[in-house]
Amino acid sequence: MTNNRSKSLRGLLLAAGFIAMAAFIFTGCPSQQRMLDTGDAAQKVYVAPGEHDEYYGFFSGGYSGQLSVWGLPSTRLLRVIPVFSQDPETAYGYSEETKPLFETSYGFIPWDDSHHPHISQTNGNADGRWIFINANNTPRIARIDLATFDTKEILEIPNTGGNHASSFVTSNTEYVIGGTRFSIPYEEDLDVPIDSYSQEFRGALTFVAVDEETGRMDLDFQVVVPPYNYDLGRAGKGPSADWVFFTTYNTEEAHTMLEVNASRADKDFIAAINWRKAAQLVRDGHGSTMPGEYYHNYYIGKQGYAINDIKNGVTVLDTREIDEDFIYYLPTPKSPHGVDIDPTGEYIVGGGKLATVIPVHSFSRMLEAIENGDIIDRIDGIPVLDYDSTIIGEVENPGLGPLHTEFDGQGYAYTSVYISSEIVKWSLETFEVVDRIDAYYSIGHLLITAGDNVNPEPRYMIGLTKTAKDRYLPTGPKQNHPAQLYDISGGRMQLLKDFPTIGEPHYAQAIRADKIVDRVAQIYEMEENDHPHAIRRIVDNRIEREGNVVRIFMGSTRSHFRPDNIEGIRVGDTVYVHLTNFEQEWDVVHGIAIKGANNSEILVAPGQTKTMKWEPTRTGIYPFYCTAFCSALHQEMQGYIRVSAADSDVPLTWRTGTN
Amino acid sequence: MIYPRTTFIIVLLFFIISFTFACGGDNSSDRPSGQADSPEATLSEFELEHGIGPVTERIELSVEFDPDLVEKGRNIYEMKCEMCHNMEGRMVGPALGDIMERRSAEFVMNFILNPSGMVREHPVGQELLREYMTAMPFQNVQKDEARAIVEFLREYNELN
Question: Which of A32, A35, A562, A582 is the best substitution to test chain B (most B C-beta atoms within 10 A)?
């Protein structure tokens, strides 16, 4: 009896201890967070009203499909740039000018999952001209112009499933890369059994050339590789600038229950590709053309409207058919996730997701191994190098589930660790952990200011975490994902701030504001408005009918539309409202909304022309108004459209200013 | 508590005090003036007659109109002014058909080039704002373009 009771007591204590431990692991202990004294932390993140932040932070929106822009260190949200998802606030994806950006070989797709923003680079440092971001689900890459903070271009990536290892640029933005997470049958639309995986499925690694002047993308070539999952990629820098590196997992070639079946092998690979040599092989005619329809959508004109350029066929280098070696596999422990290159370009750091160490390869040793022929195998023509001949260090005790690494340029690397929810700082000299700090909770990527550049700036670090749990006031069963701002300018990492973001902040980059601010446009100059439906003189406001298509050429200024009284529209008409904003003052925006229109409002920046499509289905008087609070007489900025029956003979008339 | 409340309050006070002193001086110039000093008292004679802005001395006007300049001025007027101004009769802003009889060329140019300054600091600008209740926006017009608009308005005035 006594014995039994003591047993059950012991069990109870054990359970209580376990629960306490689990609570500690999963929720941390706020009173023991290592942060600066509250006053110091407040001072470090305080940016006075009217003052500007030192850094722009660009955070991917993850499953929101967008890109959010933050001021750092204040963590003030500056803007959300819509990229892969429709945005009724700005009419992105609703206006006629932006709808073509959403077209793919599968039709109009209103959403995607955006993961890895990457700022264009010059000499290995972010230059602030453009930022690229990938779409995971229906593979695409977008380019955002950092003069206007608008998405200007979206390129579909054919023959790819899950463009996750994207959109990282090379040192001088020669290429932006893509990689297939899911290997799929390479031949377009091939209908085969799923268990023909090893025979029919292939991976594709994509190289998109970027025009130096305009940023316009062009799918240059793809490398066809064995059917693994290609997870992440990064370009080399300095001595390794001609190379890009991709991680692989599922070298087991599983196609079901990957959680188990793709976690068996002790080592998977990092694929190292000499892109300059690969490009030369393509130039020398070693590639072949594979069919593959894809959409290339981009803005034309000075202020721009998007068009669809439908393409077919892509140049491929198939490792099974090419004798020259330009790609090598570096064995790397246990389903590596991230692959990150240190500022010197020498160290290739794998995030050994399931490994107990962080493996670090040496670029120079890799070149030696290639030179010496330290090849242990060939897979579909790809040489597999000897692990011992490329590895230079293994960081012991990095926590559970190391994922991604960035650098401070002072000899240290910082690796996010998912399962144990922490960031570890380790030395690139001794490969030993020197500091660790908690993340709240379950960290994915991290960023350091310019932390993937040749010249990192050891100021701030942000951890991008996956669950908020108890960190803020609760907002229901699904909460926004958080991020934490740390100070890394001293010896130890210090938590400064913890803040909610939009969507899932998957990866982010930060760039010094002075690299961007002088390039930012304040208006679209009216003299340069080459939109085919713009009006450049207000006297040109008019309405044109061609059959059932009616075009309203409308102008706006504070605080009226011209025309603002319109009659003669009929049920069954397709009406295009082309609204030109005649303002030339920074940040003075006009919008238009029409009652009953099955569409969003449209917002028009100063000097810009935007188009709303409207198909009225009922007769009556339709009020319309300016949606942007533009002036003291904003509430007077309105008009009426009369819609008559389909067979009505009400003449088409328009006027302004005479009652 | 690890972080004593008193420390926090002291830091907060420090911020408040330092910002009061650091920024207090600048702000007054952004506010509409005219409450304390009458603008007439602070403006020069030139500014009172010819406006406040980048045009700070008399410009030469030829007796004959320059047809190229008139045409350039007409184009800019139609693109950037006509939304709000009629030649005859009030609209959002005042009629411009006879403006060159009422104002000097320099005044018109300064109003185009520095509209926010004019309605804030010039007695005529302030009066116009009270009358029309809409501040004229800057329309990204350069000095040579404002000169062209003046030429166009001069010719219109002459011919009509």
Answer: A582
